[in-house]
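Supplementary Methods, section 5.1.

A reviewer requested that the exact input to the structure prediction be made available. We therefore reproduce it here, unchanged from the version used in the analyses.
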Amino acid sequence: MDRIDCIKSFVRVVETGSFSAVARELDTTQPTISKQIAALEEYLGVQLLMRSTRSLNLTDEGTCFYEHCQQVLEAIAEAEASVGSRQTPSGLLRVSCPVAFGQFQIVPRLKLFFDRYPDIKIDLTMSDRFSDLIEEGVDLAIRIGNIQDNSLITRRLGVTRRITVGALSYFQQAQEPEVPEDLTHHNCIVYTQLSTVNEWHFQGTHGDVKVTVSGNFQANNSTAVREAVLSGLGIAVSPIWLFGDILPQGTLKVVLKDYQPTPLPIYAVFRRGRFQPAKVRCFIDFLADEFRSDSWLSDYEH
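The structure derived from this sequence is encoded token-by-token as follows.
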């Protein structure tokens, strides 16, 4: 039994959920793949997969083994690349990011990335909650805001510059705020995924200002906040890129321009380990270069 080949087959069966799909991918037969998995189970003395006519599920032991196998295969790929046998980054890259950030900032840049790295495929999961990289099998997560988990490795890619914004239709019914404290008299739309929640932080000419706001609507999704603002429901503190396509139309108004909402850092987050696969490294470098030249995302003032 070639244990590495068996491990590769096992990992792909878990990822595809299909013995036949892996057999086609590896140009072999389904019985061969089944024998490889059975050989692994016999060697380890545990059941890795629970099979039925309709489903394929990992056992607890299988989940643990799968996580370690991913690291082993990544290490092998990195070792091969380090001696020049595979200079071109390749393979499936699993990425997670916030919904709106993926929609407005990641997906529009993918064509350029694929032009540079045609041998890489990306599986993008968009969610505003912080994903567990190991549990969800994610290679790389893009996160906005400070990272508290010391078990993860981070690289800062840029910042999210934010604005205080409302629709003109809202300000036809409410007076524009002149200082942050005026927000306590407004219907404020709160994005709940930030640790500060309804405590909005501003940087003014005379120092930092904190205001606790309230309103009749809050959401854990930036796109929902965007739609609420566009409908004239109230005022939000949001990334400027969330409204970048709408601001030139003149239907929105940015207020409190002398009080900038505190920018939020953008991080690439990946699992701690000895090796960082080339596919992960080149995607991180690509995003860092892209964000550096974007005035809404760069760490530097343009």
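The chain has three domains: 3-82, 91-159+265-292, 162-262. These observations are discussed further in the main text.
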